[in-house]
Design brief:
By secondary structure, the chain is an alpha/beta fold. Helix 7 links the parallel strand 5 and strand 6. Helix 1 crosses helix 6 and helix 11 crosses helix 12.
Length: 494
């Protein structure tokens, strides 16, 4: 039977996978979720003999049931090609008694490439399947990595335009340079004088503006999203959890059926939610360890059952996790509330009005598979330095958040379950912070001077994604207040 999608907030409408991908957000402001979870129909042993693209098909076919085999395989082959610097797509590296799943070998050297390389192709096929004759306008808020990956994915794609909003002073210098040098007639990049939550809220408000939607409909446009609120972004992320397990099995580091822990650095909750989906379809996952930085709203939630964004917003060295409104958590809340959309909507309304909500004891009991942890800035720098000194392995700041949290979890619990740290970005995206952690000598040095030095220390070539922006021209310099986001979109669409 086909998997259908419905809103987390009670809209009774059921849509196909392709319709959910085009819409991005449900009409009532909720997120699309599958009406049931399918189950892996290949054995773990069979999956362990497959390469990444093959596993991608086996996972995505379960959720995208209105795509033909030919359509889905074509999307997969176009996405996971020479844009990645390794044939295995997502290498697994054993370091320090754990395994690092390296998701930064794509075109923009961040884990967002794993899903945003395929989303434009899924969207193009979806548009054709549903007879969409309007130009699709992708609106995206980014805390640093989604923006460039989305821009790279949609640049030049016929029938689409993309507008990316980012916090002007809330991303790394390299992240910003990657975005503002993006070429393409159908792309626009805008910095806002606010934080990521402001950008994300602004995009959601635009999506829910019915009057604006009607105006654009008459002009031949319709909105969609490249954020992980789009189910077409989330499902491809499920793949790499299955792939990681299959790789451990192939390398005889585990036996089929053995449980594995995953430690995931996350702010918007999409990355770790994909791990939850992998568990729901049959992957033997023991614990999903949710790693936060000093913006520890998720840690506090898992500790107390209270989600409260009413707190100081802290700019850290792991800016992609500097988030206080974790959009994808809504999908988890829906499921731990036994798919009670009305109960979920009441909690989301409370978050909108008061900035907080409390879940019931029954719902909290349904979170047993999750563990929360957080790392301070001092701990993050210490982990980067220690692992480099001990093993010669250099990780970025977000991965270091996860490594720190896992180390603390292991000490506290003694849990010896094999663990995979989901490594989300190349160290070269956060060179200044990484170099400061390793040797402290960054004062007065330019970003690219530090990049060359880091390449020497890590014994890793500077990635093409960094080399191409070394002398690239800045093409996007617009900065606006959060109240002016609609105007910027309309100006771009003329």
């Amino acid at each position: 039977m086909d998997i259908r999608y419905r809103s987390t907030r009670g809209n009774k409408e059921y849509v196909s996978a392709s319709q959910a991908i085009i819409k991005g957000l449900a009409d009532d402001g909720g997120l699309f979720v599958p009406d049931r979870f399918p189950v892996l129909d290949k054995s773990l042993e069979a999956l362990s003999a497959m390469e990444y693209r093959e596993i991608a098909y086996e996972v995505m076919k379960l959720f995208f049931t209105d795509f033909t085999e030919e359509e889905l395989k074509d999307c997969i082959n176009k996405a996971y090609d020479e844009k990645f610097d390794t044939d295995v797509i997502a290498p697994m590296t054993a370091v320090d008694d754990t395994y690092y799943l390296e998701l930064f070998h794509g075109a923009t050297i961040a884990f967002k490439d794993m899903a945003l390389s395929i989303l434009p192709h899924l969207m193009s096929v979806s548009a054709k399947k549903n007879g969409v004759d309007k130009e699709i306008v992708i609106l995206t808020a980014t805390s640093g990595d989604t923006g460039k990956a989305a821009l790279a994915g949609f640049a030049g794609v016929e029938g689409t335009r993309i507008v990316v909003f980012y916090p002007k002073n809330g991303v790394s210098a390299i992240q910003e340079k990657q975005m503002v040098t993006q070429k393409g007639k159908n792309v626009k990049v805008v910095g806002i004088t606010g934080n990521f939550d402001d950008a994300q809220t602004g995009v959601k408000n635009i999506f829910s503006d019915k009057e604006l939607a009607e105006k654009l409909d008459k002009a031949g446009f319709q909105f969609s999203s490249a954020n992980s609120i789009n189910i077409g972004r989330l499902i491809p992320q499920v793949v790499y959890y299955v792939y990681a397990y299959a790789t451990l099995l192939k390398e005889e580091r585990i036996k089929a059926g053995d449980a594995v822990n995953f430690t995931v650095p996350t702010g918007n909750f999409g990355n770790i939610l994909a791990g939850y989906y992998a568990k729901k379809i049959g992957l033997p996952v023991n614990k999903l360890i949710c790693a936060s930085n000093e913006n520890k709203v998720l840690f506090d939630f898992f500790e107390t059952g209270c989600y409260d964004r009413n707190r100081e917003f802290i700019l850290t060295t792991s800016p992609s996790m500097d988030i206080l409104i974790s959009s994808n958590l809504e999908r988890l809340i829906y499921f731990i509330a036994d798919e009670d959309a009305d109960a979920n909507k009441a909690l989301m309304d409370s978050l909108s009005k008061t900035g907080k909500y409390d879940i019931t004891d029954e719902m909290k009991a349904n979170l047993a598979g999750f563990i929360g942890g957080y790392a301070t800035e001092e701990q993050v720098a210490g982990t980067i330095r220690r692992v480099y000194d001990d093993c010669g392995y250099v990780m970025d700041t977000h991965t270091a958040v996860a490594a720190t949290v896992y180390e603390e979890y292991r000490k506290k619990t003694g849990d010896a379950t094999p663990n995979v740290i989901v490594s989300t970005a190349s160290c070269f995206k956060f060179t200044r912070s990484v170099m400061e952690a390793i040797d402290g000598s960054v004062e007065g040095k330019g970003d690219f001077e530090l990049i060359d030095r880091l390449s020497e220390l890590a014994n890793v070539a500077v990635p093409p994604a960094i080399e191409e922006i070394r002398t690239a021209e800045v093409l996007h310099s617009t900065v606006c207040d959060k109240e002016e986001m609609v105007k910027e979109v309309l100006d771009f669409l003329k």
